[in-house]
Design brief:
It is a single chain. This protein has an 8-stranded mixed sheet with strand order 1-2-4-3-5-16-6-15, with helices on both faces. α1 runs antiparallel to α3, α5 runs antiparallel to α6 and α7 packs across α9. It folds into 2 domains: 277 residues, Aminopeptidase (3-Layer(aba) Sandwich); 114 residues, Alpha-Beta Plaits, CATH 3.30.70.360. The chain is built from 9 helices and 16 strands. 32% of the residues lie in helices and 24% in strands.
């Protein structure tokens, strides 16, 4: 059977997305990029998605949290023309970052101090595009399994909006879940896959040290708070590294250390904050107790009292083998096996992991680097941007996965 460029089945089979749909999706992504919203504040983004899905004849439902939504395509009741079986969920995160957009492009952020610097605008557009294609296929009775589109808020807010979305019932009736994440180290037109852990766990750590303070001429009569804080900063990561298997990759890294205001005054207080990252799920479950013990030991040794606020973040994303194979087969069917490459486990955190605590699934690295570029702009940078051809690739990947 042949398919023309404007055939709605063409995106689901060898070929490319219709030019009109490609242009619409690029425009949609650029509109999101110009209007970034932080976690749990994505009201404009949610409204734009809801409007487009409703115009496609779908019935999206806004989450109880007030932002984000779910939208089902196909039914599970076995009626004529419907798909049967548990749903395949396609997940996108819709929030932006609290950093300025420093790019000089027509679609740069119009909101000061806000930017889609992690590619969530691309993720959102990819799932929307796949939904539009799959909705048309479902109307024609050509969708072999029901699909749920999941647009999740607050991925960048620990412990992540995914946990709250699960509580809202977004996984009810879902048997498998897939996602993509932009990767500036992979060329547009390709994806990276890995079975097993593909991200790390990420927690937040806030530590306050207290002591009597005093004059710098007499440190022996008080708690030398600056030295105590410095020893916590240096010694705690070293202690942790010796109390777990090195292959677990459990690492404490500080991003802030503050103490004192005058050169001749030993302060009464010091504060540190940082992150705890871990490659191994089992070690991550032990991490809070290990970190608490190490901080208490070092602080006590230097006469300081410690208060620890350990904020649980996200476990590692652990890709399930059958879901990875599905993504591989879908990409190979669309663009050949050469378009799939192995990827390494990163130390970044991703709250997609919370879904995988409940149902099998996998995340693919979506290439966004312009082919031929030797350098890449890393995530979470104000000048981060993508090759928008990645949108077409992501739509084709998800569409093919739903049809296999």
């Amino acid at each position: 059977m042949s398919h023309t460029a404007d055939d709605p089945l063409a995106p689901a089979l060898p070929g490319t997305l219709p030019a009109e749909l490609r242009a619409e999706l690029v425009a949609f992504r650029r509109d999101l990029h110009m209007h970034p919203e932080l976690g749990n504040q994505e009201f404009r983004t949610t409204a734009a998605l809801k409007d487009r899905l409703e115009r496609a004849g779908l019935r999206p439902r806004v989450l109880a949290t007030g932002t984000g939504l779910v939208c089902d395509i196909g039914t599970v009741d076995g009626t004529p023309g419907s798909a049967a079986g548990e749903r395949l969920a396609l997940r996108a995160d819709i929030d932006a970052l609290p950093i300025p957009d420093t790019k000089t492009v027509d679609y740069a952020s119009t909101v000061p101090g806000r930017a889609h610097a992690c590619g969530h605008d691309v993720h959102t557009t990819v799932v929307l595009g796949a939904g539009l294609v799959l909705a048309e296929l479902a109307r024609q009775g050509r969708l072999p399994r029901p699909v749920r589109l999941l647009f999740q808020p607050a991925e960048e807010v620990l412990p992540g909006g995914a946990a709250e979305a699960v509580e809202c019932g977004v996984l009810d009736g879902v048997g498998q879940i897939l996602a993509v994440h932009c990767d500036p180290r992979v060329d547009a037109g390709r994806i990276g896959l890995r079975t097993g852990p593909i991200t790390s766990a990420c927690d937040r750590l806030e530590v306050t040290l207290e002591g009597p303070g005093g004059h710098t001429a007499r440190p022996h009569l008080t708690t030398d708070m600056v030295t105590a804080a410095a020893r916590v900063a240096v010694d705690v990561p070293a202690l942790i590294a010796r109390r777990v298997d090195a292959r677990a990759g459990l690492a404490v890294t500080w991003g802030r250390l503050e103490s004192g205001h005058a050169c001749n005054v030993i302060p009464q207080r010091a504060a540190l904050s940082g992150t705890v990252r871990c490659l191994d799920l089992h070690a991550w479950r032990q991490a809070p107790d290990l970190v608490h013990a190490a901080i208490d030991e070092v602080a006590t040794l230097h006469g300081a009292k410690s208060q620890i606020d350990y904020v649980r973040g996200v476990p590692p994303v652990v890709n399930e083998v059958d879901s990875v194979q599905l993504l591989h087969d879908a990409m190979a069917a669309r663009r050949g096996t050469a378009s799939v490459e192995d990827t390494e486990q990163s130390l970044g955190g991703e709250d997609f992991s919370w879904y995988l605590e409940h149902v099998p699934g996998a995340m693919a690295r979506l290439g966004v680097r312009p082919p031929g570029e030797l350098s890449s702009l890393d995530l979470h940078r104000g000048d981060f941007d993508v090759d928008e051809h990645a949108i077409t690739v992501g739509v084709e990947l998800f569409t093919a996965a739903a049809l296999l």
